[in-house]
Fold this sequence. Notes:
The mean pLDDT is about 85. The radius of gyration is 11 Å and the shape is elongated. About 65% of the residues lie in helices and about 0% in strands. By secondary structure, it is mainly alpha-helical.
Amino acid sequence: MEAAFPLASRALEAGLRYRSGRIVERARGVRRSLTTSSPPKVVPDFDERLHGVYL
């Protein structure tokens, strides 16, 4: 799972750069797929980037 979030972060950045709602929604789907009480360190960073993104 830790390898998925850096990839999802890069995808999110690309989605924002190209203003692609489809890419951003896929990145949100990756985040929704993780349901754990103690997320890896990369998850809060990803959440911070994702917070407030609307396309």
